[in-house]
Amino acid sequence: MNCQTIWLSVICSFFLCTVKAQLLPKSAVSAAIGKMSKELKDHYVYPQKGVAIADHLTKSYKAGKFLSASSWKEFADTVTKCLQDYSHDGHLYVRYDTALSRELSKQQSETSKENKVLESNEEKSDPFFYSPSAADRKYGFDSIGITADNIGYIHLSEINISRKSLPTLYKAMTSVAGTRALIIDLRDNGGGGSDTGAVFESFFLPEKTPLITFISRTGERTTDSTVSWLKEKRYDRPVFILINNKTASAAEAFTFAMKRTGRATVIGQPSAGAANMNAWFPINEHIFISVSEMAPVWHGTTETWERQGIQPDCRAVTEGEITSCIQKKIGSSQFKK
Predict the structure, then answer these.
(1) Rg of the chain over CA atoms, in angstroms?
(2) Kind and range of the H or E element at 292?
(3) Less packed terminus of the chain by CB within 10 Å, N or C?
(4) Residues 6+ apart with CB under 8 A from 47
(5) Is 3.40.50.150 the CATH classification of the domain at 138-273+309-330?
């Protein structure tokens, strides 16, 4: 063996050892898979399906599918693809987020202790609604305006309705109160939620209007209705909601309710079809898993948008097509994002 061959062998050996050293510890991966499987079996909205998904995850791990991951982000992405390919559930995913995972673990630890009824503790209960980053994102209210022909426009990047965000919602609705029609742009809105009930819908519908029923894994049913405590002025003019294939979850729920009650005209492309209500569970200090806990249907029916999406009343992609859809309802108008 000549010197060049020996040198190449040394380089290759060093490279292989370096790559191997960079892989996630097998014991940590095993523990993560075990914890995810448990959360699926304990919390998934459909118990039998939850067991089946957990078993598929475990089998995939035993087949070596996740052992090549060199980072927790890569691991999370690979597991997410595995879970979604098998379950076809858009709310079932694993995310790499060290700060949020640690916060979720802290909350989980605190909930095992006695509950303290303090406002400061309540606001720590859900970082999506009450963390500083939620305010930094303006609670999803990206832009608010009025067109030259007096049509209001609200662009929401997420649905984030809470005690903290109510003033932002009120301000947005006040600013468009005098318009002759309102466009609510939910394109690319991946969802979110509300911890104060169906407040947004309450601006457009009579109080105590039953909307969506959520069914738990035990069969318990909870129906969401418009609130009776809203003192702000209702909006009674035509409403148009813009959606596309990235409109999902809570953004779809709002659209579904407004369309089903006949209160809004939906314009755009079919939505994502991600209906289930999910919860986050920490797996370790780096990753957490999202598990579907409840299945929504329209009250008194079995109607849902899960996996089929919401179909627009008027299909449109371009500004010109959107304008045409609006003109059919209210006459002259010019839509510009």
Answers:
(1) 24
(2) strand 287-298
(3) N
(4) 41, 217
(5) no
Residue 53's φ and ψ, nearest 5 degrees, are: -65, -45
Cβ atoms of residues 267 and 318 within 8 Å: no
191 CA to centre of own chain? 4
- How far is residue 302's CA from residue 222's CA, in Å, rounded to a whole number? 14
Q: Which of 72, 73, 63, 80 is nearest to 28 (CA)?
A: 72
Does residue 108 surpass a pLDDT of 90? Answer: no
Q: Is 119 within 8 Å of 183 (Cβ atoms)?
A: no
Contact 239/182 with Cβ under 8 angstroms? yes
* Residue found by looking up tokens 């927790």 in the block: 72
- Residue ranges of the chain that CATH labels 3.90.226.10: 138-273+309-330
Return the ∠ at Cα 280 (arms to 139 and 213), rounded to 5°.
75
CB 241 within 8 Å of CB 260:
no
pTM recorded for the entire structure: 0.80
Element spanning 271, H or E: none
Closest to 335 in 3D by CA, of 181, 141, 204? 181
pLDDT at 97 over 90: yes
Task: Answer yes or no: is pLDDT of 19 > 60.
Answer: no
Residue 240 host element (H or E) = strand 239-243
Place of tokens 């089998």: 59
Where is average pLDDT lowest: 113-122, 184-193, 202-211, 297-306? Answer: 113-122
